[in-house]
Design a protein that fits this description.
Rossmann fold; globular; 7 helices; alpha/beta; 6-stranded mixed β-sheet; two-stranded antiparallel sheet; 39% helix; 14% strand
């Protein structure tokens, strides 16, 4: 019997599906944390270019402990006019009114992830940066991660421009917020 395309997928793809991650890229972030202890002392994180959400899943599993989950309540915001995607089925806002820990940003809508505030917006937009900052109640993000890559056109000059623009947009969040962070 011949091999199907499903059989040819790499081990990380299969492992991600088995462990409930949305994409194999979750293991990149887990490996970075293992090597560099990224999450030590981190309480607030921004995940830029977050879709499909595997890095946000890792962040939620690392930043929320059992006590946080016990105190958490579902946020009643299924979506709003300002482009903030709702948290729906596992959205966590501390019952005590504590500031959220994870804000995930992407142009694409994502399925809800417990403990993650989703902002649907363009990371190159100042309005999106301001919405991100507002979710932390004026507190600084401790870590900003970005695993985004633009779609390629095959035209090198255009692709290079778009790639550089994405990195510049991620750095502009830091300038807009005045926050210090490690860019992964």
């Amino acid at each position: 019997m011949g091999r199907t395309s499903k059989d040819k997928r790499d081990i990380y793809y299969r492992k991600a599906k088995e462990e409930g991650f949305r994409a194999r890229s979750a293991f990149k972030l887990l490996q970075l944390d293992e090597e560099f202890d990224l999450f030590s002392g981190v309480e607030r994180v921004v995940d830029l270019c977050a879709a499909p959400g595997s890095w946000s899943q890792v962040l939620a599993s690392k930043l929320y402990d059992d006590e946080d989950e016990d105190e958490a309540v579902a946020a009643p915001v299924p979506g709003s006019a300002d482009g903030t995607a709702g948290l729906a089925a596992g959205g966590i806002t501390a019952a005590s009114g504590a500031v959220e820990k994870i804000v995930a940003v992407d142009l694409q809508e994502m399925a809800p992830i417990g403990g993650v505030r989703q902002v649907q917006g363009d990371i190159t937009s100042l309005a999106t940066a301001e919405r991100i900052i507002s979710h932390f109640g004026g507190l600084k993000a401790d870590l900003v991660v970005c695993d985004g890559a633009p779609d390629v056109t095959g035209l090198h000059d255009i692709d290079e421009f778009v790639q550089v623009n994405g990195g510049t947009a991620a750095r502009s969040y830091r300038r807009a917020s005045g926050h210090e962070w490690l860019f992964v």
